[in-house]
What does this fold into?
Amino acid sequence: MLPHPTPGASNGARRLAIALSSTDMSNDSSVGRLAGALRERAAALQPGDQLPSSRAIVSRYGVSPVTVGRALARLGAEGTVVTEPGRGTFVASRRAPLEDVAWQTVALGDARVDTTHLRRLLEVPGPGKLVLSSGYLADDLQPTRFLATATARAARRPGAWGRVPPTGLPELRAAFAATIGVDAGDVTVVAGGQSGLSAAFRALSPPRMPVLLEAPTYMGAVSAAQAADLRPVPVPTDVDGLRPDLLAEAFARTGAGLVYTQPTFANPTGTVLAAHRRQEVLDVVRAAGAFLVEDDWARHLVIDGVAPPPLLRDDRDGHVVYLTSLTKPVAPSLRVGALVARGPAADRLAAVRRAEDLFISRLLQEVAVELFGSPAWPRHLTALRAALRERRDTLVAGIRRDLPGVTVTPVPAGGLHVWVRLPPGVDDVELADRAARRDVVVEPGRPYFVAEPPAPHLRLTYAAATPADLTEATRRLAGELP
Amino acid sequence: MLPHPTPGASNGARRLAIALSSTDMSNDSSVGRLAGALRERAAALQPGDQLPSSRAIVSRYGVSPVTVGRALARLGAEGTVVTEPGRGTFVASRRAPLEDVAWQTVALGDARVDTTHLRRLLEVPGPGKLVLSSGYLADDLQPTRFLATATARAARRPGAWGRVPPTGLPELRAAFAATIGVDAGDVTVVAGGQSGLSAAFRALSPPRMPVLLEAPTYMGAVSAAQAADLRPVPVPTDVDGLRPDLLAEAFARTGAGLVYTQPTFANPTGTVLAAHRRQEVLDVVRAAGAFLVEDDWARHLVIDGVAPPPLLRDDRDGHVVYLTSLTKPVAPSLRVGALVARGPAADRLAAVRRAEDLFISRLLQEVAVELFGSPAWPRHLTALRAALRERRDTLVAGIRRDLPGVTVTPVPAGGLHVWVRLPPGVDDVELADRAARRDVVVEPGRPYFVAEPPAPHLRLTYAAATPADLTEATRRLAGELP
It folds into this structure.
């Protein structure tokens, strides 16, 4: 019935139980020595031949089973051996190098998604760097002890690894709904903000249409728009956020049916949509018969005063689709967020979401439920606010002290980033490259614009570095500016 | 700077610390009584008014802080109150019902994605049902104790909730690579099979092109194809899997550049691509200058003999893009899988993946690493094989005993499902509805075809029910067949 023997099937019944452990106490050099010996041995065999059992290796080389497991894993990772669970470890068939991939270029066609900048932003910096990029809180600002305890508890609960409805765990939908002030039935759980954005763009606009984005805007929104086969069109902002007059003009000129905005502590500018513009923006969107995607990622990252309510609360006809996420105020790997929508748009979103990833891991949803219901949550937010204030103030003071030609515009009342304008003529991309050579990781402003930037900028994140590192960073940046 | 006071900001400094706990010992009726009392109280206040502090409620009503927390959470979920962490609980502004959503229908345009069937398949059946649908293992077949321990350990590790490269945790890429027999650099970690499929379809074909799918095929592939703006075109299969002659003809007629196939224990048919067809299929794909997406979800679900090696191993020019996942052999909420690709296609895939969800939760990846490195993994697979054999044999025996007009074609050597042909004239969708009224949940065959089905079928899953339930299920089905 199954005519293809796997490699080594003919070698009989020897079984190899691989015991790897991350709590391994054996040292790296013994693993390395054993891996070397086994590599030599494998080289003398044919592809498909079986290696000796773990027990045999233990007794032959006088090492622990843990060392054997780690050495075999290393050989597996480098492609020397293949482990078939429950059967044994076999010499891998050498995978031939690719012979002809030119055909792929024709088959793939033109590249619609450019994530070059997003890719750089997502790189995890090595040790010793002063990190003023990153869209996430530094490790020491995350409630890691709470998360460890809550996760251990959630993972023991019956059904923790089972199925969950595609719209999300009912308790989590209710918890999000309570925070936002909407009905639980309007909430769909998503795998973080990017996943929600990606689903929203795909669901809310026919393909090949323009989508209006604030200028500057979050570069992940640009990638998500491209991936949804939409054409990003910029709409200028000022210190009061999106400009309603130009928004109306952009709708009229392009025929777009969708605008993406961050009314509260926008990334990268930190601006808040002014009170007098809120109704005007909603009126323009209604008049255009369009959707507004409100990305409210920074609601829990308020430093000064209180955050304005979501635009969503003033929406009467289902124009606003709302997005929030726990990756920003909690931790990058708590990849749980919420989309809020009403009317046929909610059904369309749900269909796109199902086709995209079926449902979000129940375990992560259970951890989020624990968090919302715990006194640790308001405690974390209070502590976070104080820490963000200290770091923001340290960074702003450092910029004013060390970088006289650089303008902070404006000092953000929340969020994670300070958006600064560089002196005329400075190349922001080159500056970021030079800073990197001094181990200062900053984001150039250019990738945050989908058209010509009005001036050179940097995005400086204060949430990903300690106050001391922030101070050292502006000192080093001073050496790179004219 | 932030001119919008949130509701109740004027009510001053009273703070409400909400103490919820999932280990709550207070009983539901006291929560219900308190919720009722607070609901009345909220009704007498204005939107934005602050509720008394938790402490005040405790002393006024003589209940525990846990009961207060749960009652407030209930009021929050129903939209009566809004909790602002660290600030207090306020009477929610009543959200007006939608006034006019007809504009949405125009803005959304025609529905490109139909997930009606997928939605039904994803419904979590209530208690007391005999579940012969579901694409996942029953709870008792999942290694839940191992997962609980591994998760608790992973969640305590420093950085467990931090960032991770978009392509995945290096150790996990290496572990997948070792299992599959490829280089770790060719592996991208994805959030389960559906997410990988969705990314592959979007990355590998220009929009609006046809994509070839086996007939019948996994309905999630149909939805993913639609969501990627591709047009699903069926290619017939027989007991030896995909028919190379008709595959060649379909490429020629449609100009498609992409075929999706499950060579090993296909869902829903259970068939394996025959040895003599493997090279022929690859030759047809190469001649068409096309990609083949190999969905290898069932590799670890082998019952009889051994599974043939992946088609990927015979690929010399980067035509095969390979997909595997841990949700099927482990648990639905271990939403971790792997995509394998080489050449420019790998870069295109990575870009689409980044735009879709940035990266997969590090915690889940750490759990997967633990699993691959543990002796519990081969032990689980051995036990699983025995359990699946017992359930498959019980189901097949039940069909042969109770359902004389129904043909099992063929008895699957692995996977989760038996695909049966119904007597001519039976309506499979109606039959599934009638079975549901007897608490037997089965999948009609029609949604697994994108064109006219050749005969009525059912997909009967043996992995989601106990042997006793399987026996009872065929007995009940007998009463619904002519």
